[in-house]
Amino acid sequence: MDKLNILSLGAGAIGTYIGGSLALAGHNVVFLEQPPVVDILHTQGMTLDLGIDPRRKEQTRFTLTPPTVQFTASLAEALSQTRFDVMLFALKSFDTETALHSLTSTVSPADLPPALCLQNGVDNEPAIAAALGPEKVIYGTVTSAIGRNGPGNITLEKLRGVGVADGHPLSKRLVEALDSAYLNAKLFPVAADMKWSKMLTNLLANPTSAILDMTAAEVFAHPGLYRLEIEQLRECLAVMKAKGIQAVDLPGTPVRALALATKLPLWLSKPLLSKAAGAGRGGKMPSFHIDLHAGRKQSEVTYLHGAVVRAGEQAGVPTPVNKLLTETLLALTKGTIPLTEFAHQPGKLLAGWHS
Q1: In Å, how far are 212, 319, 325 from 205, measured between CA atoms?
Q2: CATH no. for residue 157?
Q3: Quick one: pLDDT band at residue 277, thresholds 50, 70, 90?
Q4: Is the pTM of this model over 0.85?
Q5: 17 or 275, higher pLDDT
Q6: Please, which pLDDT band fits residue 1 given cuts at 50, 70 and 90?
Q7: Residue 293 half-sphere exposure toward CB, CA atoms < 13 A
Q8: 185 plus 199 within the same structural domain
Q9: What's the CA angle centered on 194, arms 326 and 256, to 5 degrees?
Q10: N or C: which end of the chain has fewer CB within 10 A?
């Protein structure tokens, strides 16, 4: 198989895992990062702990340094050295606008390769298409759970896979490259089905955990909160139905079973969804909780639950639970209400639902 020239925007958890794995498979990968991070990567290298993958029998921990991978803080420098086939776009959704502005203010979109978007949510690919052109975006998703230990330092916590939507000239070639790098890639015929199915899985116990400062297990153990979780999923599925979007199984992720569980009696669905909520993140606290309690002043809730609300408004589908969770978490994130306002107080959050 022909080797790809790949530009990875950032060395975060997903960028390091995907880009690093492709580098291990022999592809040419350049990581574009902020100058302080580039200095760290040049000093320490990039570390991938892939020990849970049974296919990597002889060696499971890898340290990547130049020339196996390259690190740079200059987009212009990277583009002057080689012609890239694809760009990995795996930033937090709230960083998308800034990243696109930085790219287009540095070079012409015509000089940039197509972007494989591996972000959560359903708004990023349209934003990339608007900034770079529709031919410059490839819809993707990652279902494996990755732990970030520092810049360019990750641990594979749950091996599932990567999805790539068909319809772009590079789609099939990317699936072959990703699959040969042990990333368990799968081609999906309908981009919207793939992206909304991934978003459905991201809703579980995410804002509730952050708002209440409770683990996913604690959220699902509370009867009232469990009903809240089910209702937010039902709202999302109703929006998907109104938009003609199907729930599809993703690599290692039985999304159709998750959708079916929302139709079962609560006593029957609870064990299934509780297990999914706990296992889906590799034992970590949900991402919204991590961002909020780390003091970040931005939240991806706008791009997940908020996206459900916006799509619901367009389709005429009520989404009161997703709206409550979005608005409450944003208020906590912006500091308009203190972090202690709802901490370990499920009844207070539930009162807002029933008011």
Answers
A1: 10, 17, 11
A2: 3.40.50.720
A3: low
A4: yes
A5: 17
A6: low
A7: 17
A8: no
A9: 85
A10: C
